[in-house]
Amino acid sequence: GPAHLFRLAGKCFSFVESTYKYEFCPFHNVTQHEQTFRWNAYSGILGIWHEWEIDNNTFAGMWMREGDSCETKSRQTKVHLVCGKSNKLADVSEPSTCVYSLTFQTPLVCHPHSLLVYPTLTEALQRKWDEAEQLLYDELITDQGYKKILKEIFEEAGLLKATEEKEVEKQNKKISLEFETVEKCSKEYKQLSEEIKKLRVLLSQHGIAYKGNSGE
């Protein structure tokens, strides 16, 4: 994400509402502590730093997920970043059961360009974005196709977490034996041949018979 926001890392900001004290530690977690003398007063995690909320190609907030379990799911919190004179946690609400909303004020987001996603990307990913813009302009992809490419760019940059299926797909790609070019195929074939030679030597050293065929 935006490098200038990293100076918030390692700091925590609290907000007290009624009998609850909320604590937001950017890039770490959000916690809630019930300040009563009840024997079972709640104290726990409302979310751990997970990914960015990106809206209109701008960092709109931070998602803290995988907090303490709550009925059938985990508690999660969305932290909205808004311009303010000082760094402070300004508001906390629970729009739906176990999903919390925090408003964090900071002067670090007051500049109109301070939360743009594009400048935080590598040159390669910026090029990929530029190409997608051009394709959209030339009407070679739909708006939906453009958004899909952007999502892939954000995932590749580590701003968004890829879904589990995507991760599996990625792993499968790594072990796939399909090659984009003949050159890559030849290189891989050479490496495998070398490996087989070494393994044959090892097998013969240990007196293990090896049956190969000419079309291996």
From TrEMBL:
Residues 117-216 form the DMAP1-binding domain. InterPro entries: DMAP1-bd, Gtb1-like, Man6P_isomerase_rcpt-bd_dom_sf, MRH_dom, OS9-like_dom. One of its GO terms (cellular component) is extracellular region. It is found in: Golgi apparatus; Secreted. Residues 10-112 form the MRH domain. Homodimer; disulfide-linked. Hexamer of two alpha (GNPTAB), two beta (GNPTAB) and two gamma (GNPTG) subunits; disulfide-linked. The alpha and/or the beta subunits of the enzyme constitute the catalytic subunits. This is N-acetylglucosamine-1-phosphotransferase subunit gamma.
